[in-house]
Amino acid sequence: MKNMQSISIFAHGFLLVMLIFSHPSSTQAQEVEDEREFDYVIGGPIGPEKWGEIKEEWSLCSTGKMQSPIDMSNPRVERVVNPYTLNRNHKPSYATLKNRGHDISLQWEGDAGSILINNTEYALKQAHWHSPSEHTINGRSYDLEIHLVHMSNDSKIAVMAVLYTLGIRDSFLSMLEANISSMINQKGQSVYSGIINPRDIQTSRWLYYRYIGSLTVPPCTEQVVWMISRVIRTVSKSQVKLLREAVNDYAENNARPIQRDRCK
Ligand SMILES: *[C@@H]1O[C@H](CO)[C@@H](O)[C@H](O)[C@H]1NC(C)=O
Ligand SMILES: *[C@@H]1O[C@H](CO)[C@@H](O)[C@H](O)[C@H]1NC(C)=O
Ligand SMILES: *[C@@H]1O[C@H](CO)[C@@H](O)[C@H](O)[C@H]1NC(C)=O
Predict the structure, then answer these.
(1) Is the CB of 117 under 6 A from ligand 1?
(2) What is the C-alpha separation between 210 and 214, in angstroms, rounded?
(3) CB contact at 8 A, 124 and 146
(4) Measured between alpha carbons, how far is residue 204 from residues 38, 83, 199, 227 in Å?
(5) How many CB atoms lie within 10 A of CB 168?
(6) Distance of CA 149 to the CA centre of its chain
(7) CATH code assigned at 125
(8) Is 102 known to be catalytic?
(9) CA 92 to CA 109: how far, in whole Å?
(10) Cα–chain-centroid distance for residue 211?
(11) pLDDT tens track of the chain, all 264 residues?
């Protein structure tokens, strides 16, 4: 009897752990989770120029007319100053850090709040890092870029981005350093990070670039609202190195090249 009980406690514990660590893919803003299917090797068999040919569902990566990333001098980009266009309402919630192979992604399990754009509410799902930056400003690329991926109830996507240049360490990444170190080259591994407050990711309060583009990883889904902070923040060299090391076996760098506007 006692044995049965402890087995059942063990089983429940196991189930709980499974629940925490195997997050349903529906909430991951449609980004591809399996990392080996594409990479960032220019000219390689599954590199960025080939993404659209790897799977039919990824064809927008080659044929899409509003692909990301782009340079901020592109005429599609608007400078937004009016704070009321972005109503940021993020809140702390439980999160798991996952090594997706092509990047490190912080996935909120519970309600991490939302942003309101044009009366559409987009809930925060996850954040991940690209190095070097994917978006460029007047042709200049930066050392790191974070994407905060949001999704509305009808599956519309909005991404807030912040670019970083080398300098003083970023306090948000500092908080996650132990967790990131524990998953170096552990593709598919998840660690529970506790309660993470998305407000600790510092963005600009008022100044944004805004344009309509796509996800920068397959399936390159379009009609994504991009809000890119015009205030550049800093990150230390060792923090960028740590993020690189964590995915090193799979991607030396993980920035999709700038996309040309394709003629309509
Ligand atoms: C918000 O609505 C305005 C007016 O309808 C439109 O011009 C603008 O493109 C919209 N912005 C976004 C990000 O959807
Ligand atoms: C989506 O729908 C749920 C349930 O109706 C609601 O609570 C939530 O605020 C809605 N918005 C987002 C962005 O999830
Ligand atoms: C991850 O970070 C959390 C919060 O700081 C900590 O409690 C946990 O032990 C860390 N896990 C690992 C594997 O480093």
Answers:
(1) yes
(2) 12
(3) no
(4) 32, 10, 11, 10
(5) 9
(6) 6
(7) 3.10.200.10
(8) yes
(9) 11
(10) 17
(11) 444 444 444 444 444 444 444 444 343 346 666 567 899 988 989 999 999 999 999 999 999 999 999 999 999 999 987 655 567 889 999 999 999 988 999 999 999 999 988 889 999 999 999 999 999 999 999 999 999 999 999 999 999 999 999 999 999 999 999 999 998 878 888 999 999 999 999 888 788 999 999 999 999 999 999 999 999 999 999 999 999 998 876 667 899 999 988 755
Q: Which of 220, 209, 227 is nearest to 65 (CA)?
A: 220
In-domain check, residue 261: no
For the record, the structure tokens of 262 come out as 């394709």
Enter the pTM of the model.
0.85
Answer whether residue 84 is part of any domain: yes
Phi/psi for 179 (5° steps) reads: -65, -40
Residue 116: phi, psi to the nearest 5? -115, 120
Domain with 185, as residue range(s), is 50-251
Number of domains present in the structure of the chain? 1
- What's the CA-to-centroid distance between 202 and ligand 1, angstroms? 25
Ligand nearest to the CA of 117: 1
User: What are residue 197's DSSP bridge partners?
Assistant: none
CB-ligand 2 contact for 113 (6 Å cutoff): no
Amino acid symbol at 54: I
- Would you say the CB of residue 119 lies under 6 angstroms from ligand 2? no
